[in-house]
Amino acid sequence: MTGTEDILLCAAAWRKAGKGVALATVVSTWGSSPRPVGSQLAVDDRGDFVGSVSGGCIEGAVIKEALDAIETGRPRLLDFGVTNEQAWEVGLACGGKVQVFVERIE
């Protein structure tokens, strides 16, 4: 499952099964970003997930925040970024920024 519709269907199935679920959505990008605006990641209360908001580089942090959102019910806007100088230091071609909105699904 990788399409947005599949991610939402999976999240709905988890909710129907009684699981806590959070949805993370890329809401803005600047510069280099592995996933476009609108990309989504659904997470259940056990930490299982489907979809992608980063191609791996920030997914762990987003999943952690999603689990907290499931527990507290508090949505959050996450900012991830790297300057061009930092990007070169870690071997990336260019810098970028991505904002991800995380919310519990009721």
Q: What does this entry look like structurally?
A:
- By secondary structure, this protein is of the alpha+beta class.
- It has one domain.
- Helix content is 31%, strand content 34%.
- The protein has three helices and five strands.
- The protein has helices at 4-16, 59-72, 84-89; strands at 21-31, 40-44, 49-51, 76-82, 96-105.
- It has a five-stranded antiparallel β-sheet, with helices on both faces.
- The longest helix has 14 residues, at 59-72.
Give helix and strand order, one letter per element, not per position.
HEEEHEHE
Annotation field: number of helices: 3
| pLDDT averaged over residues | 86
Secondary structure tally: strands: 5
Strand content: 25-35%
Quickly describe the structure.
The protein has 106 residues and is α+β, with helices and mostly antiparallel strands. It has three helices and five strands; from the N terminus they run H-E-E-E-H-E-H-E. The longest helix has 14 residues.
Which key features would you list for this structure?
106 residues; alpha+beta; five-stranded antiparallel sheet; 3 helices; 5 strands; 31% helix
